[in-house]
Here is the input.
Amino acid sequence: MRRLLSLLLAALLPGAALAQNPAITDPVHDAAHPPLPVAFVMKAPDGAGAMNALLWLAGGAGPHPALLLFHGFPGNEQNLDLAQAARRAGWHVLTLHYRGSWGSPGQFSFVHATQDAHTALAWLRDPANAARYGIDPARIAVAGHSMGGFMAADAAADDPAVVGLFLIDAWWIGKYGAQTATPPGLAAWRANHADDMPPLAGATLDGLAAEARDHAARLDLKARVLAYGARPLAIHGSAQARGADNLAVLDAAVQAGNSHATGGLWDTDHSFSDRRIALATTLVDWLATLGPAAR
Here is the structure.
């Protein structure tokens, strides 16, 4: 009879017979502590704009570890499937739109985005926010895709308490910006990113290129990853996009003595369009190495 009931349950509940892989399987519902989305506006410390943000609260009694997840430039790929997978694994996840992007008040710029990344990390660490939302401030990891990969590395490098850094085809903004110093390089920049501008306020293609050139040292991905040190690090690059730069940064981290550095090259596009389940599984498995997630 028990076996019959188990078979019936598996037939009635999709995924019930599958292994509990948070990347593809829903968790057991906790009526007392259900997962919830919390939308809010995070103000910039200097008062010049704000970030539309969303905290994806995991189900189950807390406190929970937290993942800060940054999207790229301009952010057409939000990676919210990764946010949901991490949440199903027991992690709160904070996502946001940088100042001047996707309706967030203020002016978009690369330097503003770095400031926004630091602001978001500080928000997770704020004792009042940690207490209100059940965040474990001692178990915060940071992840980012493309430009968001640089923002993740930048914020994590300056916060020695971050427990892990996960980069997805991260953008070496300073190196790319230096290439716009020549007329062919600037023309390529304009052609490649003309369609990226509509969601961004207060910015121009030429202005962003100049900013990337002028702040090339500040926007150096390898320097920020090396400044992050020997903590857990994962770098996953796309063979069809920024894989070469990502492998170079990963190799530099290993050569610098980071024995916790993992990753590699994926045969897919910049958005990992045909590897989303694999990417989500990789993220969830990596998060599990940072300590047992609260359930």
Summary: Residues 35-288 form a domain with the Rossmann fold fold (CATH 3.40.50.1820).
